[in-house]
Amino acid sequence: MRKELYGHEISVLRDTFRRLLRRHAKTNIVKLIKKTHPADLALLFRYFNDVEQKTLFNLMDDPEKTAEFLIELDDGIVAPLLEDEDPQRIVQFFRELGSNDQAYILGLLPEEKAQSIMDLMRAEEQEEVEEIMAYPEDSAGSIMSTDVFTLNQDTLAKDAIAALQGFEQAEMVFYLYVTDEDNRLAGVISLRDLVTTKPDATLKDIMIKQVHSVRPETDQEEVAKIVSRYNYLALPVVDMENHILGIVTVDDVVDIIREEATEDFLQMAGVGKDREILLKSTFEESKLRFPWLFATWLGGIVATIIVTSFGDLLNRIFVLAAFMPIIAGMGGNMGTQSSTIVVRGMATGRVDFGNAFKIILKEIRVGLILGAFYGLLLGIYAYFRFYDVSPYLGLVVGLSIYCSMLIATTIGAFVPIFLRRIGVDPAIATGPFVTTSIDILGVSIYFLIATALLPV
Amino acid sequence: MRKELYGHEISVLRDTFRRLLRRHAKTNIVKLIKKTHPADLALLFRYFNDVEQKTLFNLMDDPEKTAEFLIELDDGIVAPLLEDEDPQRIVQFFRELGSNDQAYILGLLPEEKAQSIMDLMRAEEQEEVEEIMAYPEDSAGSIMSTDVFTLNQDTLAKDAIAALQGFEQAEMVFYLYVTDEDNRLAGVISLRDLVTTKPDATLKDIMIKQVHSVRPETDQEEVAKIVSRYNYLALPVVDMENHILGIVTVDDVVDIIREEATEDFLQMAGVGKDREILLKSTFEESKLRFPWLFATWLGGIVATIIVTSFGDLLNRIFVLAAFMPIIAGMGGNMGTQSSTIVVRGMATGRVDFGNAFKIILKEIRVGLILGAFYGLLLGIYAYFRFYDVSPYLGLVVGLSIYCSMLIATTIGAFVPIFLRRIGVDPAIATGPFVTTSIDILGVSIYFLIATALLPV
Questions:
Q1: Which residue of A3, A395, B130, B339 could cross-link B412, Cys pair, CB 3.0 to 4.6 Å?
Q2: Residues A303, A447 share a domain
Q3: Global pTM?
């Protein structure tokens, strides 16, 4: 009886593979590969270097398992692994895959390589793959499986079951889609209802007529939302005439949800939207992180210019410099909190334009409360600690941190909502943009208040 | 034919409900409720106030639909909605729910209310619910459905199909679990395999004998990982003797994945792990955000003390203050980027102790590259801009930002890995802790370098 493969078991398996690889114990490696689930093999590949990966891959001989392994493998590993591989061998594995999985792997390979594999495929398969590859990236069309089990609505239940027995392709059949005389999607029946109904009922009698469906251009995030909201196991993809093109199954949706949910936060931190950033080289990662750091850098230069313009004041009361970090830090964290709450709310569907204004107002109220509290706290500290410098210093820093925190919640909540309104992905810019603008505004307000309140 | 309900359609529906509510058009409201999917109703409730919610809820009369609606509703809405409701009415809806869903709702209610509902349930149902409520929060036991379809391994395929027809309870049957003579989990058969096999085959002959299972104490996040890694539709939960206690189905896993994936980032921003923070009151949200802001505040005071201790230097060269924001800002963003990458990597399973060291080293290399670039850039700017103040100032700020960015990537990558090693949730503290410590270290290094390099 197999139990869950926790992290511990994965590392035991990894060490066993390593030991066998060192000893060049081919027969044992082949045996171990046979015993290991393809999904676990894919996971293990993260820990092996290029040479180890190639050695193991060359020892895989079960086409079905190897095909599943390739699908489960991280994007970043697939290309280098298959690059020098004989197209003939790759095509062997491809025979075990649906068109959407074939398209996915071909999309990861250099064009030439992909073409050489395509040339070895049957004309009909080629066509199907090309069709899928023509859909936009991350659309329902690009992830749908084209092996769908459909039957006409006049079919009898018993004939439907017989037909099911002849349908080898689809690994995940739980719904039977029913079409009308014009071959349009007319209804859906769960396998369970099919089995438990009277054998002589027609599908038309037992099918559910309200079927949710999406178009091939629909974004996969939208597909994931529908599947998760209504607890579907699959969602049909139809064309303008309501003919079924394919289905998106829940197992793909699970992966999409995980990736999309976390992708937002990579973008918020300004590290691009590359899901496999951990597998990138040092140089590539640096390139991904470069642009937003540059924006921060420019913002920093602006802050420098602002501070310098208050040179006389600083020259007189250098203690003012000591409170710059706390004012910027509190504002920065406060702003990040607000934009994290809002960006996450948009990802889970809890923030939209209908309630955006209410949410911004609430963040402002939170800013008023927390700003007042921390302003008072810092003001009291500064008053007693630096009474000798100026009795007004407490008021200056207290008021400044209050303003900075209030501005921070406002900007933090407003920016992602505004970006979405103008059609920009709110996660892209939010993080560094919010902290940088809060930095600049915070420092300006601080020195303006100081100029106004501190006696010359 | 029903198409996907996009945000637009939801807001149309919301406005229609509002209009009908204003007009007290009861009959029309009841009709509209009947036409609306329970999941959509649950979504709509986010936009209605308490009074509107109560009015609508009182007009729901289909027990099955209302039960589904309650399950789909946000946690934060369930309690106020049911608080003053007649237990008799609630029990009506409860009859339509599985024990796990009953336990979930009871867990949201005040103890007294929950008890008054329990008292109205049948003894057997009560027992089942109490059993589930005894499992730890967020464990497999607390989310499993106890309505499982199991049969003995000696059953014939045709008898199994007949048995399936008599099994009303389970809404989501796609696997048939097979037990041995001691009633232990022995295998699993997909419904499709059952239907397409010879009627006289025994289940033992056609079942898959390797079944993944978890224990009721297993964390739901682990359950979600297994289901998503191996593309399962359900996962059995077994006791120590391998008797089936229940199953966790993929539709619950989808919700868990979304919540867990985004929860990390709320924690990283220091706003607690309350998934429904958007539904909290202003005051409650302020309370959730308070603790980490306090940590930031303390860190800021430390920074203040450090800066003040370099008072003589600042007093002489006040321009030094102008570069504090850029040094802190670049370090802060750099550190947030690194810890976001690592925390997300741990959430998706790509970072573990096996490769933690390698990942920290890579982050350090990224820090070396980007730090060198931006150090040079800022150094050149400061050299030309403030040559009159000191020809060394370029060197001081360039070197400082270089060190600050290098330290930022190191701390940003190290802290979450270290927290996890010592058994603390890495997301809890990472964000504010990383930025605050980078602030303090950055400012210290800056003034130390300035003291060392700038002529007295």
A1: B339
A2: yes
A3: 0.76
